C-alpha cells in the first residue's frame, strides 16, 4: 500500500458504470499522476439494457470533450425530448413529461400559475401545448439548440437513447486512449488488510493479483467489493417501489425513430419502448408478487412494434441502495451501489453523479473519513430525491381493480413526498430540496398528467385581466407550434449531422 496518497485506482467491472468511471478518472485525474486499471470479465458480461438518458449526460460527454455527433453515430443513438406516459393516470389516458421549460413567465410570476388560472376559467389547452419539447416530439421533429437559435428553441432540453453496449465500447476506446489499463479476467478473491479491513488487492484467475490504493466497485448487482467483502448493507425500498423484475427484448424498428421514450403502464408494472437508429428496445418492469415471468414475457412479446431481434432477457433487482456507498477505501458506482427502476431513466445519471462527487471529494489518503461521510450523505440524498419522484408516478394514479395498482395507489408514502404532493395539489407550489434533480416542470407535468394537478393558483396570477391572459397564452401556443413546424424531421437531423460518409 502506498504511503498515504492515492496513486493506483482499480476499477472492478466494465459495464456502463466501469467504463464511464474509467473514462472520467483517466481524463480528469490522469494528469495528476493517478493510474487507472479496469478489470472485467467477458464471460460474466454486463446488464447492457440501459438505453435512455436525461439531459445531464451532455455535461458528462462535454467534460470528456466527446463530440456529440460522433457519439450519436458510434452508439446508434437517437435524440430524446422526453417520455410519453400511457395509462398511468388511468387506462386510456396519456401525457408527456418533457425536458426543458414549459411556457414563459409573465411579470416575473411562474407560467404555470397563469395556466392553472386559465384552466379554472375554462381554458382547454393542456400543459403540453406550451412545451416546445412536447409539440416537437409528437411532430417527430428535432433540432439541437444552438446559442443563436433564440430563446424559444433554447427552452428545449434533450438527451439520448443509445445502445448501452456500444456506449461502453465507445468509452472503453476513449479511456484506453487516456491511459486506462484494461485487464481481462475473473476476480476470484478480494484481499483485505487483516487489521484495518481496507482493500489491498484483487486476486484474479491464473494467479494474478492487482494491487491498488482506491477501489471502485462497478461489478453490478453482485457488489463483489462493497457488499460481499466490505459488508455494506442494502437499504430496501421495495415497499414503496415494489417492481423487482424486468424482461427486455429488442425488436425491428418500424419507420423512423420517434424522439421520445414511451412508458406504458401495464397490469403489474410498466413497459418501455426506446427507439434507436437500428432497432427498438423494449422491456416490461414488473413485480413478481403480481405477475409470473412467463406471463410478463408473453405480454411483452405480444405488444412489440416489430419482430424480436434478440432473446428475452430476464433480470431481477431490488430497489434501494447501499447504506455506505463508500466504505473503507472502496466506492460503489452503478448497480453495485443501488438501483431505482428506469421509469425516469436515472441510473446512468446516478452513475454520473457518483463519478462527479468522487472527483470533487477525491481523497488524499487511503483512509478518508471526512470525504467518505460527505460522499455518503450526498449520494443518499440523490437516491432519495429520485425515489420520491418515482413513487409519485405510482401513488398519483386513479387506476383500480388490478391488485398491483390497488397496492401502489393505497400504500403509505414517505413524509417528504406527501408534503410535496400536498403543496403541489393546493396551489401548484413546489420547492426543490437541496440539489434535487427533478424540478417544478417535472413534478407538475406528472402530477397534472395523472390527475393530481393543482386545484388552485397563486393569488399573484390574478393581476392580469382574463382577456390579456387568454391572448398571452394563445400567443405562446402559436409560437411553439410554428417553431416546431419549422424544425427538421428527427431522422433528417440524424441523417444530416450524425452519419459518416458512406453510412446508410
Ligand atoms: P453491469 O452492466 O452488470 O456490469 C458489471 C461489470 O462487472 C461487468 O463488466 C462484469 O463483467 C463485471 N464483473 C462482475 N463480476 C466480476 C468478476 N467476478 N470478475 C470480473 N468482472 C466482474 N439506466 C438508464 O440510465 N436508463 C435506462 O433506460 C435503463 N434501463 C434499465 C433497465 C433495466 C431492466 C435495468 C436492470 C437497468 C437499467 N438501467 C438503465 C441501468 C443501467 O443498465 C445500469 O445502470 C448500467 O448498465 C450500469 O450497470 P453496471 O455497469 O453497474 O453493471
From TrEMBL:
Keyword Nucleus: no
Positions annotated to bind FAD: 14-17, 335, 348
UniProt organism field: Erythrobacter longus
Active site: residue positions: 80
Keywords for the protein's UniProt record, in alphabetical order: FAD, Flavoprotein, Nucleotide-binding
Pfam families cross-referenced by the UniProt entry: Trp_halogenase
Source organism, top-level taxon: Bacteria
Molecular functions per Gene Ontology: monooxygenase activity; nucleotide binding
Positions with a binding annotation for L-tryptophan: 344
Phylogenetic placement of the source organism: Bacteria, Pseudomonadati, Pseudomonadota, Alphaproteobacteria, Sphingomonadales
PANTHER family: FAD-BINDING PROTEIN, FLAVIN-DEPENDENT TRYPTOPHAN HALOGENASE
Name of the protein in its database record: Tryptophan halogenase
UniProt keyword Phosphoprotein, yes or no: no
Residues annotated to bind 7-chloro-L-tryptophan: 80
Amino acid at each position: 500500500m502506498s504511503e498515504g496518497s492515492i496513486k493506483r485506482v482499480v476499477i472492478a467491472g466494465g459495464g456502463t458504470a466501469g467504463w464511464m468511471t474509467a473514462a472520467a478518472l483517466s481524463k480528469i485525474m490522469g494528469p495528476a499522476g493517478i493510474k487507472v486499471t479496469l478489470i472485467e470479465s467477458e464471460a460474466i458480461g454486463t446488464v447492457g439494457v440501459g438505453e435512455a438518458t436525461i439531459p445531464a449526460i451532455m455535461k458528462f460527454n462535454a467534460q470528456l470533450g466527446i463530440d456529440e455527433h460522433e457519439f450519436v453515430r458510434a452508439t446508434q443513438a437517437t435524440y430524446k425530448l422526453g417520455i410519453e406516459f400511457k395509462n398511468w393516470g388511468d387506462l386510456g389516458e396519456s401525457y408527456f413529461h418533457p425536458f426543458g421549460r414549459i411556457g414563459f413567465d409573465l411579470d416575473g410570476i411562474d407560467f404555470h400559475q397563469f395556466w392553472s388560472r386559465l384552466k379554472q376559467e375554462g381554458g382547454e389547452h393542456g400543459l403540453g401545448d406550451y412545451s416546445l419539447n412536447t409539440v416537437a416530439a409528437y411532430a417527430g421533429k428535432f433540432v439541437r439548440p444552438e446559442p443563436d437559435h433564440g430563446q424559444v428553441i433554447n427552452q428545449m432540453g434533450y438527451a439520448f437513447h443509445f445502445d448501452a453496449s456500444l456506449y461502453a465500447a465507445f468509452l472503453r476506446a476513449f479511456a484506453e486512449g487516456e491511459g486506462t489499463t484494461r485487464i481481462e479476467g475473473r476476480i476470484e478473491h478480494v484481499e483485505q488488510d487483516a487489521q484495518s479491513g481496507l482493500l489491498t488487492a484483487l486476486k484474479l484467475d491464473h494467479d494474478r493479483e492487482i494491487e491498488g490504493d482506491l477501489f471502485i466497485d462497478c461489478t453490478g448487482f453482485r457488489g463483489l467489493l462493497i457488499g460481499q467483502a466490505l459488508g455494506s448493507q442494502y437499504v430496501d425500498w421495495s415497499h414503496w417501489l415494489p417492481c423487482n423484475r424486468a424482461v427486455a427484448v429488442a425488436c425491428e424498428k418500424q419507420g423512423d425513430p420517434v424522439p421520445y421514450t414511451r412508458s406504458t403502464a401495464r397490469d403489474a408494472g410498466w413497459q418501455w419502448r426506446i427507439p434507436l437508429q437500428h432497432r427498438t428496445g423494449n422491456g416490461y418492469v414488473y413485480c413478481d408478487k403480481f405477475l409470473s415471468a412467463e406471463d410478463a414475457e408473453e405480454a411483452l412479446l405480444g405488444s412489440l412494434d416489430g419482430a424480436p431481434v434478440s432473446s428475452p432477457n430476464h433480470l431481477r433487482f431490488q430497489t434501494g441502495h447501499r447504506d455506505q456507498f463508500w466504505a473503507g477505501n472502496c466506492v460503489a458506482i452503478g448497480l453495485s451501489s443501488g438501483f431505482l427502476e428506469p421509469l425516469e431513466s436515472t441510473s446512468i445519471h446516478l452513475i454520473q453523479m457518483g463519478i462527479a462527487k468522487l472527483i470533487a471529494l477525491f481523497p488524499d489518503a487511503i483512509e478518508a473519513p471526512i470525504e467518505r461521510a460527505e460522499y455518503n450523505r450526498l449520494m443518499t440524498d440523490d437516491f432519495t430525491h429520485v425515489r420520491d419522484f418515482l413513487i409519485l408516478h405510482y401513488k398519483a394514479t386513479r387506476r383500480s381493480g388490478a391488485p398491483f395498482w390497488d397496492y401502489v395507489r393505497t400504500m403509505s408514502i414517505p413524509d417528504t413526498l406527501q408534503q410535496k404532493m400536498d403543496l403541489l395539489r393546493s396551489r401548484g407550489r413546489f420547492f426543490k430540496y437541496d440539489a434535487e434533480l427533478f424540478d417544478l416542470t417535472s413534478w407538475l407535468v406528472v402530477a397534472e398528467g395523472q390527475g393530481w394537478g393543482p386545484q388552485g393558483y397563486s393569488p399573484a396570477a390574478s393581476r392580469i385581466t382574463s382577456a390579456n391572459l387568454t391572448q398571452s397564452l394563445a400567443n405562446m401556443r402559436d409560437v411553439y407550434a410554428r417553431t416546431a413546424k419549422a424544425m427538421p424531421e428527427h431522422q433528417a437531423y440524424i441523417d444530416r449531422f450524425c452519419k459518416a460518409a458512406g453510412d446508410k
